[in-house]
Write a structure and sequence with these properties.
Blueprint lengths: L6 H6 L6 H6 L2 H10 L16 H8 L3 H8 L3 H9 L6 H12 L1 H15 L1
Helix pairs in contact: 5-6, 7-8
Length: 118
């Protein structure tokens, strides 16, 4: 069980720190406490790694200009993503995941969108 106290509460109780209890926690205890606390972020090993636009573009065998045309964005946007880190924007990351996992189908869908717009 996690007990939260303000600094004032801890000081009012004499600021005791139970070193023996603290040292008795195992890694499993700490992981369990983190998982039980809704105010904490999830453990990093459960987070999905972000994809880089350059890696996906290269896997697809496209130039920056071709990739930009497929996505319907300016080539400068692709270059910025590749110069800096690709944004963690959830929509962009979802698109990159789709392109990375089901490349042929995704590229066909993007070509279809481009033909309809044109």
């Amino acid at each position: 069980m996690i007990v939260r106290k303000t600094l004032e509460q801890a000081r009012a109780e004499g600021g005791r720190f139970d070193k023996e209890k603290f040292d008795s926690f195992t890694d499993a205890d700490i992981k369990r406490m983190i998982d039980e606390d809704p105010d904490l972020a999830p453990r990093t090993e459960t987070l999905v790694a972000l994809l880089e636009a350059r890696n996906v573009r290269r896997k697809l065998g496209l130039t920056p200009a071709q990739f930009a045309k497929k996505l319907g964005v300016p080539v400068e946007t692709i270059r910025a993503w590749e110069r800096e880190f690709t944004p963690a924007d959830p929509v962009l990351q979802a698109l990159l995941r789709i392109l990375n996992r089901i490349s042929k189908s995704a590229l066909r869908a993007l070509d279809h969108r481009a033909r309809k717009a044109g």
